[in-house]
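Task card 7
Instruction: Convert sequence to structure tokens.
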Amino acid sequence: MRIKLPNLKYNPDKNNGGYTESQLNERVRGQTISQEFQFPNDILQNQRERSLTTGKLHGCRCFVDGNINLYLRRDFVKYIQEREWKPGKTIKKPSDTSDNSDIKANLKVVRT
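Output:
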């Protein structure tokens, strides 16, 4: 008899994305991250490849077990929450080499 696990899905309106502490500490496959967070798997692959190429971390840490890539769900929740555009949030413009001004603009997310 197989035990059916609940379908987990990230909820931006809940604390910790709606996950319990034990769920946050789980290492999950990239395919699971794609399903739960609606995050394309090809972006995860690109982040891993860029990290290997540049020697600098792009995206979340990835644990490699043979040919299986695992992500700590807690790291991914934090990664997503840092990049979410919510009303009232101020987003600092990243440094841009084409912008020579000393003052960088901040963007403020508003409802329309």
